[in-house]
Design a protein that fits this description.
- The chain is rod-shaped, with a radius of gyration of 56 Å.
- By secondary structure, it is of the alpha+beta class.
- The chain contains 5 helices and 6 strands, in the order ββαββββαααα.
- The termini are far apart.
- The protein has a 6-stranded antiparallel β-sheet, with helices on one face.
Length: about 280
Amino acid sequence: MIPVKLQLHNFLSYKEPQPLDFRSFSLAVLSGNNGVGKSSILEAITWAIWGQTRAASDDELIHQGEQEMWVEFIFEHEGGLYRIVRKRERKKNGGQSFLEFQTKTNKKLLFDDVGWQSISEATLKATNEKIIRILKIPYEIFVNSSYLRQGHADEFTIKTPAERKEILSEVLGLNFYEELSQKARQQARSSAEKIKMLTFQIEDLQEQVSRKNEVEKQLSQSSNQFKQISKKHQALKEEISRLEKLSREYEIVSERLENLRHQFERLRTEAKNLEAEKIKILAEK
């Protein structure tokens, strides 16, 4: 983070808007008597970014006799230009806070109000979290590494070993590698689950292929059986046709035989009658 501009209004000892252009110097020393507002400048930066200071409440930061204050802080970070405007109003019902987070692509119009685009979230809390997410440094890490607050020079040394370890990890960027390690473990678990799932799918597909081969074999056998049955069926049809033909021929022959039998009986009867008449005629002579 590179500070660009800081402007205060009714913040602690600063009443009228006090702009501070950080581009006009590369190194600065704040000097002066106690209470003139040296630490207030740094407190204004921490309040603008994190909404936190050494004060017990935001209302304690409002200039005596005033009802509202605001701080504007412009900074560069990882090639981007950002502006934070944090405001506090003191009211009978407890007061109200406002937060606006903006960015700008045209750095040439740095101090112009035009060109700023709001990237604030729907709530103040969500906007706070977004600012911290972009800067990648919580308030506790900042005040224990880059900024020693007035009266808190031993802030780091009085921390517990676990807290000092966490702060150093943040400062040295070790948490980044811890996050990478966690992501790698999560990815490994996810990959293992995917491999397991794919293995089950492969086994299921292999079983389906095996069943398919068996079904194809059965279909082939059934096809051969069908062909054989079809041949037998055709042979039976031909045999039935032949038998039906013989049956018709048998009926014709039977009918002829019956006719011949009737003719034979008629002729035999006629022969008997003729023989009887012959005998009668011979007897009369």
